[in-house]
Amino acid sequence: MELREGAAGVCLNENNELLMVLQGKEDEKKTWSVPTGGKEDGETFASCCLREVWEETGYRAETIEELMVKQAEIEEIPIQVEVHYYAVKIIGGAPTICDPDHLIHEIAWKSREELKALKLSYPEDREFLLRVMS
């Protein structure tokens, strides 16, 4: 079974809002996620996280700490997935979509209450993200 590795950036602002992106292919229903993507050759998980934050949001960030590693099997495809989630801090940039895959449609800061109701790309992340925002 193929292994796909990636990383995600979990960023809170001074109002305890979570940096999220609305994503999806042009012809599919769009869903929300923290900036997330696949690891490229030669990248560490941390450098993948920072690249994805920049590509999907236009923000430059630094990692603070690794929060969790999600491992899953998607039998329909079939693949194994390993995603490393990092707490990140914005250190520069401005909200701009730089995504080379053209899958990002909106950048927004979402409150804890909004997160409870959003249609997520990865619904299994909701409880984890709510805990991070507590």
TrEMBL record:
Which cofactors does it use?
A: Mg(2+)
Q: Give the superkingdom in one word.
A: Bacteria
Residue ranges of the Nudix hydrolase domain? Answer: 2-134
Q: Which GO terms describe its molecular function?
A: hydrolase activity
Keyword Hydrolase (UniProt): yes
The entry's keywords: Hydrolase
Q: Name one Pfam family in it.
A: NUDIX
Matches recorded under PANTHER family: 8-OXO-DGTP DIPHOSPHATASE-RELATED, GDP-MANNOSE MANNOSYL HYDROLASE
Output this protein's name. RNA pyrophosphohydrolase
Species in which this protein is naturally found: Oceanobacillus picturae
